[in-house]
Amino acid sequence: MTGDRWVATPPGSEGSLSGLLLLGLLQVLPAPPAPHGFSVRDDPAGSARVLWSADSRGVTSAVGYLRERLRALAAYFDAAPMLSGAIADEHDQHVQAFFSTALQRQPVTGILAVETTPRGASFSAILDRPQSLAGSLARLAPQLPEFQLATAATGGSALPPMQQVMLADGSATIQLPVGWRLTAGQKGSCDVAGPAGETLSLGAAAPVWTTPMARMSGLFVAPYSDPVTALRVLSPQIEAGLARIGQPAPRLVRIIESQPTAAPVGQAALILYESALSGRRLLSLALVLTSVTGPQQWLFYYSGASAPAEQFARELPLLRAIWNSFSVTPGELQRRMDDAIKNMNETWSMLRSAQANATRASLSAAEGWDQVIRGVQTIENRSGFRAEVPNDRAQKWVERLNETGTGHWRVVPASELVKP
């Protein structure tokens, strides 16, 4: 990325016949002339295209600027892009929207993003054929600031596109969003790290010995117990073991709540707990299973997701989606976990709240785009009475009503169109 926005080329393709053949096989999209005020760049590693524009004017509304850019792009496509959903922040400074249309009779779909600052506004659109879009987004979105800022500002109210990743030994697959990475994986277990301190450790299992002599060999030692007790007793040993190999390990602070759940063998429980790492407070939700495997040995199984405490509730739907995508997790075990969550008061409350906020944001976005299409906005007074007015006059109507003393009126942001 430079001031020209695009400089990437496929590794080793410059001046090579294989590179030219590769580009030919990618079936590049039709290329009508670039609309006035837009830069157009094709994805050198795929069939996608990026449209970009910037404006140094004092833009105060991301939704308004997006609407303006869509009008400017109308002639580029066969028909005006149809919007299928959007997310926006409450201050109307960032917005993302999904769209579909046709380009010289070829169906295309994509995602738009706008970022506004006191210095102006910028717009990016990634478009591709429907069957190729997921891979293109994973590759291109991290390179476009509008997508990174808009995603952060909207609080992750919608699950991002995810791509499938296979463990190196082929034993399992998992779906990861852009910016997340697989840090370890073998024999049906894996560790995942997110961009904001989130982690998942899935399918981890270790033998635990009941004889104290095993401690001399660095093995886990503890009497056989239920999952909650096992987590509490083994956590210091896990922490010490990781420290010996130079890896930071969270320290268990407290068990917040737990709920037993059915297991194929032994005992299982879903556990919400707090830990600390490098002075930062973490919350974790884990499935822990214990099962006797021999006269002096039992199995400790752990799958869990963690995030910094201040963002855990917001991240929980995404953490669960990634966890659920792990291919070696049996569907029946996942169903039992879901049932257990419903019996955990604090966890269920967090999850339900996050899902309700996401649903409300999605419905508000749909209502907002319906208003964009119809050219109206909603105004509201202090008592909650609402009315739709032409969008180019909404602010003037509010100012005039407030001047006449008929009550405190305001323009309702798109994020509040659907009431709680």
What report would you give on this structure?
The chain is an alpha+beta fold. Helices cover 29% and strands 35% of the residues. The protein has nine helices and 19 strands. It has helices spanning 17-25, 62-73, 133-140, 145-153, 227-244, 312-325, 331-342, 345-374, 394-403, and strands spanning 39-42, 49-55, 82-88, 94-103, 106-117, 120-128, 162-166, 173-177, 181-186, 189-193, 199-209, 220-221, 251-261, 267-277, 280-294, 297-308, 376-381, 386-390, 409-411. Strands 9, 10, 11, 12, 13, 14, 15 and 16 form an eight-stranded mixed beta sheet that branches. A hairpin with a 2-residue loop joins strand 15 (280-294) and strand 16. Helix 6 crosses helix 8 (345-374). It starts with 16 loop residues before the first helix and ends in a 9-residue tail after the last strand. Residues 1-26, 149-157 and 329-333 have low confidence and may be disordered.
